[in-house]
UniProtKB/TrEMBL annotation:
Originating organism: Polarella glacialis (Dinoflagellate)
Organism superkingdom: Eukaryota
KW Nucleotide-binding (keyword) present: yes
Boundaries of every OBG-type G domain copy: 21-282
Protein keywords: ATP-binding, Nucleotide-binding
Protein known as: Obg-like ATPase homolog
Amino acid sequence: MPPKKNEEAPIPRFGRVHNNLKMGIVGLPNVGKSSLFNLLGEEAHAKAENFPLCTIDPNEARCAVPDERYDFLCDIWKPPSTHPAYLHLTDIAGLIKGASTGLGLGNAFLSHIQAVDGIFHMVRAFDNPEVLHVDDTIDPVRDLECITAELCLKDLAYVAKQRADREADVKKSPNMKLPPLFFSVMDKCTELLESNQPLGKAEWTAAEVDKINELIPGCITLKPMVYLLNLTKKDYYKGGNKYCLNIKEWVDSHGGGLLIPVSVEFEEELKSAEKAGDTAAVEALLEPLKAKSRGSALPKIVKCGYSELALIYYFTCGEKEVRCWTVQRGATAPQAAGVIHSDFERCFIKAETVAFEDFKEHADGKSMAGVKSAGKYRQEGKTYIVQHGDIIHFQHNVTAKKK
C-alpha cells in the first residue's frame, strides 16, 4: 500500500497555550462593562456608576459555562460533588482617546488588557441622555475606531521597540544576522497597525505565527475578540437598531469577528426577577423573544468566550463527583489526564472514552453495558485527541518510577 499523504499541519495559535485563560471586558467608559461583568460573574461586585472611569483596578470573577450535557450527567449520578467548567473574566477600566500616550489610566489600562488572553469589546449602541458618554454624542463606529486605534498604537510602539532591540543586538555581534522572515514579519505588522488593522485578523502562515509568538507575543491585537453590542431592552426585543448595520460593516472591514447583541437593561431585569422567584415576571420578560427562539444573551456570551480561547472540556462521572476538566483544543489523552494530576500524564496507560451523545443514546442509566454493546465504548492511546464533551476514565500506573 502506498503511504498515506501527510495531512497539512494546523496553523499554530497566537498567545499562551494554557488551560487557565481569561477574557477581559474592554470598551469606552459608561458602555455597560461593569454591569455586564456583575451579571456574568459569580460573586462579582464591580462598581457600576454613571460617570467615566468608575472602575480603576481590574475586577476578576468566574462564570460557569452552561451546558445541558453536564446537567444531564449530574441528574443521572446525583453526586455530592459537582464542578462545571468556568470562564474566567476580568473587568477592565474604560479606555479614553489618547490612552496609548498615557491619558486617562493610559499604560496601566493597556497593561491590564495585555494580561488577559481574549477580549470582549463592548460597544454602546443605544441612546439615553441620562447615561453619560465621554464624547457627549452616540456614535458606535467612532467608538470602535477609538478603541482599535489605541490598541494598534500601543502594539505599534511595542513592535518598534522589539525590532530596535533585535537590530541593536545584531550590531553588537557582527557574526549574527537576522533572517529574512524577521524583516517580512515586522514590516507586515507595522503596515497593518499603521492602517488600524488588528494583527490577529490578518492572514498568516504557520512560520509567521511562530515568529510572531517568538518576537512580539505581547501584542494586544493578536488576542481573539468578540464584539458585544449593548442595546436597550426595546431594541433587543426587535433584534437590533439603526446602529447595528454600520457596526457590522465596520467589523467586516477590520478583519471580521463575532457580534453578539445584548441588553444590560433586559438582563438586569431578568436576573432581578429570577432572584426574587417571580416566575410571572420572568415569563413576561422572555415572552417577546420566544417567537425568534431567543432568550438571555449571557449563555451565548460565556460559551463564545470559552470557545474563542480555544478551550474545551471533557467529563469524568461517578458516584462521588461529576466534573468538567478544561483543556486546550487539540490536547492529547495524556495531556488531558495531566489536568487531573501530573502523575496521570506521566504514568498514562489508556483512556476509556465515549462521546456524550453515544452515552445518552445507548447507556442504561449509569451503566455502560449498552454503550459497550453498541460498540461506542472506546479504548484510546497516547495519540488520541480529546473531543469536546468526551466522557473519559483514565487508566494509569501511578507506581511507575519517574524517569
